[in-house]
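// run 5 | inverse folding | seed 20
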């Protein structure tokens, strides 16, 4: 109806760090505990008419296949997700850590290039004529620590391969004209498994992103 605020939809495209797996378990945090939920609630309190849509798959890589589980290549279905949820006020990409699983030889540079490929996929998605191409925020995951517990074998050596990830992702985001945020500036990964986020860490990341995305929504949509 005339005079009503336009709903701003934000698509979060990520993996288990955002899906909310509880470190050391196969359980999941509730939406309000996950950083997208913390973000949505904060933006609403800031009087944004907003919905944060999660598309977060455990084990998702940037552009590579998981040899044991199909469908973990991040480019698969991304364009359709953008098309499905358009018009979008923002797309947030937070991927990279799974590129460093032990079955892959990838470095931080490779993961950043994978994010660059996903940026292009978002921008060429077949959205309806007249709908705006959404701005993109690249969020670099926090630095992987020595992996522990049930995921240790899966991520053995990951902390060395991931070295310099924030720098490489920042370069790609700048070259592609995207917004960038380093999650490692506000939180570490969990001490329980070295890879995922505890509830307190989800809260810290979600709260930190409120101001960042508040400015993007005001400027770009």
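// decoded
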């Amino acid at each position: 109806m005339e005079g009503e605020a336009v709903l701003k939809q934000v698509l979060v495209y990520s993996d288990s760090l955002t899906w909310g797996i509880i470190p050391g378990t196969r359980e999941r945090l509730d939406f309000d505990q996950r950083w997208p939920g913390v973000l949505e609630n904060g933006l609403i309190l800031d009087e944004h008419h907003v919905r944060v849509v999660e598309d977060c798959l455990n084990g998702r890589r940037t552009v590579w296949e998981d040899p044991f589980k199909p469908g973990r290549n991040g480019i698969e279905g991304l364009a359709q997700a953008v098309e499905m949820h358009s018009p979008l006020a923002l797309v947030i990409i937070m991927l990279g850590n799974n590129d460093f699983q032990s079955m892959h030889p990838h470095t931080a540079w490779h993961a950043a290039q994978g994010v660059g490929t996903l940026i292009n996929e978002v921008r060429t998605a077949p959205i309806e004529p007249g709908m705006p191409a959404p701005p993109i925020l690249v969020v670099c995951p926090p630095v992987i620590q020595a992996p522990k517990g049930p995921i240790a074998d899966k991520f053995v050596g990951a902390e060395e391969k991931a070295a310099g990830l924030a720098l490489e992702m920042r370069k790609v985001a700048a070259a592609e004209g995207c917004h960038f945020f380093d999650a490692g500036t506000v939180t570490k990964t969990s001490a329980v498994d070295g890879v995922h986020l505890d509830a307190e860490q989800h809260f810290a990341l979600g709260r930190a992103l409120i101001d960042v995305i508040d400015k993007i929504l005001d400027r770009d949509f």
